[in-house]
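Figure 6 in text form: structure in, sequence out.
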C-alpha cells in the first residue's frame, strides 16, 4: 500500500488515478447539489443543446424580427395573392398577397409572448396556492383542492371559446389571462405533492424544532427542494400553451387581425391548402418545431432533475 498519507481513503484503500498515482485529498470530489448534478447530466445530452438553441433563436427573432425579415408583415398586395415561392420571397405569398416568410417570422412574437406570460402566471399562482395547500393542510388545503377540482372540470377549449367570445378584442393579455385561469390547478397539485413530501424531511423537522417560522421554512428549506417538478412541468407547459394559443386563434376566438399569429395564418391557409399548400406549410411547421423544442427541453430537464430516471 502506498505510504502517501495525503491520499484519499475509500473503504480502507487509497483512491488512485488512471495512472496509478494516489489521488490527493485536495483533488477529491466535493458533494454536489441536485442542481449541479442536473447541469452535469444536461451538459451530456445533445438534445438539450439542440432544443435550447432553437428556443434561443425563437426568443431572439421574437424580440428583433427585423434581424432576418426586412419587410412589413402587414404590407400586402393582392396582385401577388397565393403566388408560390420565388427568389425574393422564399415562402411565397398568402391569400391577401402578404409575404409568408415575413409573417412567419413576426408570428413568433405573439406566440412566444403568450407562452411566456401564461407560463409565468401559472407557475406563480399554481406554486403559491399548491405550496400553501400542501404545507398548512387542513381547511386551507380543502378549499384550494375543491376550487381546483371545479376548474379541472372545465374543458379548456370549450372554456376558451366561451370566455374569449365574451371578451371584445383578442390580445396577448386576454389570451394569457384565460390560460392562467384554467392552467393553474394542475401545477398547484404538483406543487402540493412536492411540498407535502419535502415538509416530512428531517431537515424541515429540525428547523421547526429550532423555532424557525413558517416563512423561513417555506422559503429557505422547502421551496428549493420542491422546485424541480415545477420547473419541469413549466418547461413542457410553455410549448403546450403556445399550441393552445394557435388553436384558439385558429378557431377565431384567440388573437385577431391585425395581430400576426401562426394560428391566424394557419386558419386562413386551411381553406386554400389544395391551391396554395405553401401558405399552410411554413406557419404550421414553425409552430410544430417550437412546440417540439419546448417538449424536448422539458423531457431533458425532467430526466436530469428526477433521480429515479438516472
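Output sequence:
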Amino acid at each position: 500500500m502506498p505510504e502517501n498519507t495525503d491520499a484519499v481513503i475509500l473503504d480502507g484503500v487509497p483512491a488512485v488515478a488512471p495512472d496509478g498515482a494516489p489521488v490527493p485529498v485536495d483533488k477529491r470530489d466535493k458533494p454536489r447539489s441536485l442542481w449541479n448534478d442536473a447541469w452535469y447530466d444536461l451538459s451530456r445530452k445533445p438534445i438539450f443543446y439542440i432544443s435550447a438553441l432553437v428556443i434561443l433563436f425563437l426568443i431572439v427573432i421574437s424580440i428583433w424580427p427585423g434581424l432576418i425579415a426586412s419587410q412589413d408583415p402587414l404590407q400586402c398586395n393582392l396582385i401577388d395573392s397565393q403566388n408560390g415561392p420565388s427568389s425574393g420571397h422564399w415562402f411565397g405569398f398568402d391569400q391577401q398577397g402578404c409575404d409568408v416568410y415575413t409573417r412567419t417570422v413576426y408570428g413568433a412574437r405573439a406566440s412566444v409572448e403568450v407562452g411566456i406570460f401564461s407560463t409565468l402566471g401559472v407557475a406563480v399562482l399554481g406554486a403559491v396556492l399548491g405550496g400553501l395547500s400542501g404545507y398548512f393542510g387542513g381547511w386551507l388545503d380543502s378549499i384550494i383542492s375543491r376550487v381546483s377540482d371545479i376548474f379541472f372540470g372545465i374543458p379548456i377549449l370549450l372554456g376558451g371559446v366561451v370566455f374569449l367570445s365574451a371578451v371584445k378584442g383578442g390580445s396577448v393579455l386576454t389570451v394569457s389571462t384565460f390560460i392562467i385561469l384554467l392552467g393553474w390547478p394542475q401545477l398547484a397539485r404538483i406543487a402540493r405533492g412536492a411540498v407535502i413530501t419535502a415538509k416530512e424531511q428531517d431537515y424541515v423537522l429540525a428547523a421547526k424544532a429550532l423555532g424557525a417560522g413558517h416563512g423561513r421554512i417555506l422559503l429557505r428549506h422547502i421551496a428549493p427542494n420542491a422546485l424541480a417538478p415545477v420547473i419541469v412541468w413549466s418547461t413542457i407547459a410553455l410549448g403546450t400553451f403556445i399550441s393552445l394559443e394557435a388553436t384558439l386563434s385558429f378557431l377565431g376566438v384567440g388573437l385577431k387581425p391585425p395581430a400576426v399569429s401562426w394560428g391566424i395564418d394557419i386558419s386562413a391557409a386551411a381553406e386554400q391548402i389544395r391551391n396554395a399548400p405553401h401558405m399552410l406549410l411554413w406557419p404550421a411547421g414553425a409552430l410544430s418545431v417550437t412546440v417540439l423544442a419546448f417538449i424536448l427541453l422539458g423531457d431533458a430537464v425532467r430526466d436530469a432533475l428526477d433521480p429515479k430516471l438516472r
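Caption detail: The beta strands are 9-10, 13-14.
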